[in-house]
Amino acid sequence: MLELWAYLNRPIRQALVHVGQCSYANRGRGIQPGSTDSKELRGNGMWIGPLPENLSLIETSTAVQDVFAPAVFGGAGKWNVRPCGHCGAGR
User: Fold this and answer.
1) Which of 11, 33, 61, 90 could bridge to 17 as Cys pair (CB 3.0-4.6 Å)?
2) How far from 23 is each of 29, 56, 70, 76, 91, CA to CA, in Å?
3) For residue 42, what are the domain limits?
4) Confidence check: pLDDT of 69 > 90
5) Is 12 exposed, middle or buried (0-12, 13-18, 19+ CB in 10 A)?
6) Over the Cα atoms of the chain, what is R_g?
7) Which residues contact 6 (CB under 8 A, 6 or more apart)?
8) Cα dihedral angle (64, 70, 75, 81), rounded to 10 degrees?
9) Total structural domains in the chain?
10) pTM of the model
11) pLDDT of 22 higher than 90
């Protein structure tokens, strides 16, 4: 089963979509030391996931823009959603 995660970076309004096994995602724990809770807002953003595996990058982008980002950070607005350059999730 392919597990997708998105990291929402609040200051630059960008979400990177990763495969859960990606070394940068680490199943929602990321690469920061001591990061263990994917649902906790830390510093610049937070991890969301696992996402439904059947979502395309366009559907993931819509979900981030319309559901996740407003729920986490309040307000609507344009977010740049793209696949991780390392694992290529969502391509």
Assistant:
1) 90
2) 10, 21, 27, 30, 18
3) 4-83
4) no
5) exposed
6) 12
7) 15, 16, 17, 18, 47, 48, 49, 51, 60, 64, 68, 81
8) -20
9) 1
10) 0.80
11) yes
| Over residues 40-54, mean pLDDT | 78
Q: Order across the sheet with 80-83: list the strands.
A: 45-51, 4-9, 14-19, 80-83
Q: Encoding tokens for residue 33?
A: 């030391």
User: Both tokens of residue 10?
Assistant: 């609040």
**Quick one: tokens of 1?**
């089963």
Query: Do the domain assignments include residue 68?
Result: yes
Residue 90 lies in a domain: no
45 belongs to a structural domain: yes
